[in-house]
Specification:
This protein has ten helices and no strands. With 219 residues, the protein is mainly α.
Amino acid sequence: SREGESPPRLQQTPPPSAQSSTRRASMPEVLSLCKGPKEAYEAFADKGAELSRKSIAKIFHQSVYAGIYIGFGGMLSLVVAGGIADASKDNPTLQSFVFAALFPVNLLLILLTGGVLITGASATVPAAVLEKKAHWSSIPKVVAISWVGNLIGAVIFALLVHSCDMNAGATADLAIKITYKKCSKDFMQTFIKGIGCNWLVCMAGFLSGQAQDMAGKMV
């Protein structure tokens, strides 16, 4: 080499492990719009713990408007499903399907506004107790308050519907039909159906907690 000139530097190739680390660092992180079962359950228990720490007045208030929202969904289902009574004479399943498809609107309203249903509270609060995030006495407290609040809210909505003369015609006919069908069943049969119904409502709340965006919660 010429005098005064430094020898050329050789470029060193990083080892394969360093190359893979560099590639992982440069790759964008994959974000999921849905929590996993473990994370969803932990959030479920945290929700129950938060509810357990609330005052009686707050739980009661959230329960009352949740009962009113149940009425909204029920009334929507009765009006639309009752209106297709003639079209579903040959296929009674059609009316049942329309009613079942519209009724969950009430649950969506409750989940997105923070309402308290006895159905959901009977799962979230025990989950918090099992995870030692709440005292066992929170279970009867929250369940009792939410039951009373839901009942009062539903009665208030029923009085509003009656005063507006909205429960008439085909809507009233379907309401009477459903009421008679439910009240004529055997107690044990109704009790077991109630367990299954509550199970599905709790699963809907759990799945809604997994979703991180509005569209996911609606689905």
